[in-house]
Each structure stands twice: as structure tokens, then as C-alpha cells.
Amino acid sequence: MGRGRIGEQSPRYSYMLNPHSDVRLSKCPKCGKLTHLRKFALLIHIEAWGLLALGKTCRYCSRCELIMVHQGELEAELAQSFRRIAPEVIGKAYMVLGTIEKKAWQEGLSGRGQPPAKMLKHVAQFKKVYTLEYEPGGWYPADQGPRKS
Length: 149
Known about the structure:
Elements: E1 14-18, E2 36-46, E3 50-61, E4 66-70, H1 71-85, E5 94-100, H2 102-109, H3 116-119, E6 123-125, E7 128-131
Parallel strand pairs: 1-4, 1-7
Antiparallel strand pairs: 2-3, 2-5, 3-4, 5-6
């Protein structure tokens, strides 16, 4: 395993967290191609808890290999997951680190999973993490106009 790298798989996919509840990303913000839904096993580090493997349906652009996760949906699923087992973790800081091979994730769900140290051989961190910049259209006063690129 390389220094500063998570998991033993080669980095795969790019990642974007969408914090805007009114932007749904039906088109890829990089290439403009239509996105589609695809399920990924995401590896998430949660402060005061540790690592969690979460199956999440996300928007995906196959051309750019870009996974787009809606922050509100992700946080709702995390809250639902921890409501019974660790309610003190709800609302803590988290970071999506990469993906886990689906087969290894499914084995973990069925109880045939491997210990966390061995599970890392099935983890691939993201190639690149993007930030979604969004500026709503519409009328702006002259002194408060949208940013010029």
C-alpha cells in the first residue's frame, strides 16, 4: 500500500459532493452528458466512530467516471443507520474516502465479511475530488451581480 493512499486497489472514479438541495445533477457538470443512477459501496470515515461501508445509489457519469452524491440524502442515510446503534454519532463530521468492491461489501452484509484490515485490499480511493460551484440564475442588483468567470 502506497504512502498516503487508502486501500490496495488503484485509485478509481472521481467524486463530487453536492451540498445544494435545489441542484439535482441530471447532467454531468464536467461534460454535460446525461447522468444515470448507479449503486456504489462507499467507504466513509465518521468522526468518533470510524469506518463505515454504506451502499448508496448516486448519480454517475460513465464518460467522466464521476460519482455525484447529494449531501442531504447521504446525511439522511447516515442518520438512519446510526439512529439505533450510536445516536451520539449523528451530526458528526464525516468524509467519503473511496469505494469498496461490491462483492466484498455484499459479503460483509451477509456476515461472511473480512476483518477491517483485510477489507482494505478491496478499497479504492478516489482519483480526484471535485467541488460543485453553483450560482443560481436570475436578476441581481448591479452591485451584487453573479461572479464573472
